[in-house]
Amino acid sequence: MGYVFDPAAVLTGQYLDWFIWGLATTIALTVAAWLLGMTIGIILTLVRMLPFRPLEWLVAGYVEYHRNVPLLVQILVWYFGVPQLLPRAIRMWVNSHHSEFLLAMVALGLASAAYITEDLRSGIRSIPKTQYEAARSIGFNYLQAMSYVILPQALRIVIPPLINQTLLLFKNTSLAMAIGVGELTYRTREVDSYTFKTFEAFAVATILYLAISFAIMALGSFADRRLKLEIR
Amino acid sequence: MIRFESVEKWFGQHQVLAGVTGEVKRGEVVTLLGSSGSGKSTLIRAVTRLEAIQGGQVLFEGADVAGRGVDINRLRQRVGFVFQAFNLFPHLTVLGNITLGLERLRKMGKAAARDRAMSELDRVSLADKADALPSRLSGGQRQRVAIARALAMDPDVMLFDEPTSALDPEMVNEVLRVMRTLAQDGMTMVVVTHEIGFAREVADTVWFLDKGRIVESGAPAEVLDDPRHDRLRSFLSRAR
């Protein structure tokens, strides 16, 4: 018996809706986790650069945990473990407000932050110390020198590795299906089990993932070209 | 305005400042001469605590710059610093380099900061480069922007750390011209330089440093034309 490849079968009615919702959830999860990751990543970078050793070790520990424990484990810890530590009132609130999306976002964002702070640190290291001196000489304090002079330059330098982190984050959102987030992979599995059109369902998912990945790359290289530092 | 009292500084085992004592008065132009490694850059960097010192004191308007009550960021706003390598911020335009401090520290509005920056750029004859990135400027132009950036903060004194040493010979003069005008306008200046001609013509006082000490100081005419010290004599003969 031959297999008839029939994409139209999974692109009608509720299946189409599921794909659209799945894609929207994947994009929302990527954007939210990215914003969280960038924010935490920048904060960690500022903290680890302070001349106080224990803070440096603390951030190093953070980075090693997030880079060396499987992301799926981190997500499961956040979903099954952390809510139990919360006060009852907050736990109730989280559970009734799509806790799976929220906790997946936190897990993905925090893991991204570990990679982002590593990239940022190497970017900052590549900026001559004299830039920092010049900023301090104008009268800026540490935080101002970092935010107005050093970080804007470091961010421009690390755009290429940041594009990679963004792509990784985007693909890793599929792990959130393990805790029931209705993102693209989860919805694809659903379409598959309702229609038994496995190849069609995953072909659609593959094309959607590829399209978004290419869009991220295009956006990234556009930003890189626009913002590239002219040193010489 | 600035007083150095027995200032000492070591880099490891090497003593770069071995008890420097001297005073820069308001409105005075002091030029620091000396071969490389004599400690002259370190000395002016100690004024704004870009270098920490291990002995003695640096006083700015009577207060120890390393004192507990001193807000170093405030002090740095009052002391303009010009570096050998310009150190312009490459991600900002010429104008942006100057307005950054005005907007963020002086809390000026965008328009006011822009006006102020433009008048400083005018002073160094670079108003037409306001929107250029530093990478598009020549070395001499970059250093003039750096001077304008420091002047915009309306400092009480300007420190120059070999401002023309990184420049091609033909660009040295455009920078020196700006500094000469500044001196004529009455700005208090401390200039580390190898430009003997500039020292002779513009400085009120010349300090000659050797091995971390001021070995000779006085008016340019007496120090440069009638050197008593062997080290200064050989320094001058090599410089000519």
From TrEMBL, chain A:
- GO CC, one annotated term: ATP-binding cassette (ABC) transporter complex
**Name under which the protein is recorded:** Amino acid ABC transporter permease
Q: Which organism is it from?
A: Bradyrhizobium cytisi
Looking up Gene3D superfamilies in the UniProt record yields:
MetI-like
Domain ABC transmembrane type-1 per the UniProt entry, residue ranges: 23-220
Which keywords accompany this UniProt record? Cell membrane, Membrane, Transmembrane, Transmembrane helix, Transport
GO molecular function: any one?
transmembrane transporter activity
Q: What is its main location?
A: membrane
A Pfam family assignment: BPD_transp_1
Xref: PROSITE patterns: ABC_TM1
On the tree of life, the source organism's domain of life is: Bacteria
Membrane-topology annotation of the record: Multi-pass membrane protein
Concerning its family, UniProt says:
Belongs to the binding-protein-dependent transport system permease family. HisMQ subfamily.
UniProtKB/TrEMBL annotation, chain B:
> What is this protein's name?
Amino acid ABC transporter ATP-binding protein
Q: Does the UniProt entry include the keyword Calcium?
A: no
GO terms assigned for molecular function = ABC-type amino acid transporter activity; ATP binding; ATP hydrolysis activity
Name a Pfam family for this protein: ABC_tran
Q: What does this protein do?
A: Involved in beta-(1-->2)glucan export. Transmembrane domains (TMD) form a pore in the inner membrane and the ATP-binding domain (NBD) is responsible for energy generation.
- Looking at the record's lineage, which domain of life comes first? Bacteria
What family does the database annotate? Belongs to the ABC transporter superfamily.
Keywords, in A-Z order: ATP-binding, Nucleotide-binding, Transport
Q: Where is the ABC transporter domain?
A: 2-236
